[in-house]
Amino acid sequence: MTHCERSWPGLRQNKILSLLGLAMKAGAAVSGEFAVDKAGKSKRAYLIIIAGDASQNTRKHCLDMCRYYGIPFVLYGTRETLGKAVGKESRSAAAILDQGFANSIMKQIDTGKNQIDSSEKREDQNI
Fold first, then answer.
1. Number of domains the chain contains
2. Looking at residue 114, which CATH number applies to its domain?
3. Is there a domain that residue 64 lies in?
4. Residue 88: closest CA among 20, 2, 7, 13
5. Tens of each residue's pLDDT in the chain, 127 residues
6. What is the pTM of this model?
7. Which of 42, 125, 51, 56 minimizes the C-alpha distance to 94?
8. In a domain, 1, yes or no
9. Going by DSSP bridges, is the β-strand pair 73-75/47-50 parallel, antiparallel, or unpaired?
10. Residue 2 domain-assigned (yes or no)
11. Does the residue 98 lie in any domain?
């Protein structure tokens, strides 16, 4: 299981949100708490993205479902940024239904995480 709760510089974030939007247009993603719940329980979801500012109830429900069904998840962005990415007003969660899109998004998240980690190491060495 993957859990990541960081914010990345604009370019990396735009790429992740662009992939989410592309997956949505391709029919390889669903958004909204009910649709995400349905995709998770039917084991169609390969990745669940939860907005960082989602309510405690929504976050707990999604995280419990991900842990129970073994679905990778990430806390990312805000409800507004997720909503914009999928072409809706605001969304607390989205589920990626395609393995390729899920891998691409996780690769972007891991790349951003590694870049941040390496910059933190450089700062530590300068001290």
1. 1
2. 3.30.1330.30
3. yes
4. 20
5. 555 544 444 444 589 999 999 999 999 999 999 999 999 999 999 999 999 999 999 999 999 999 999 999 999 999 999 999 999 999 999 999 999 999 999 999 888 765 544 444 444 555 5
6. 0.79
7. 51
8. no
9. parallel
10. no
11. yes
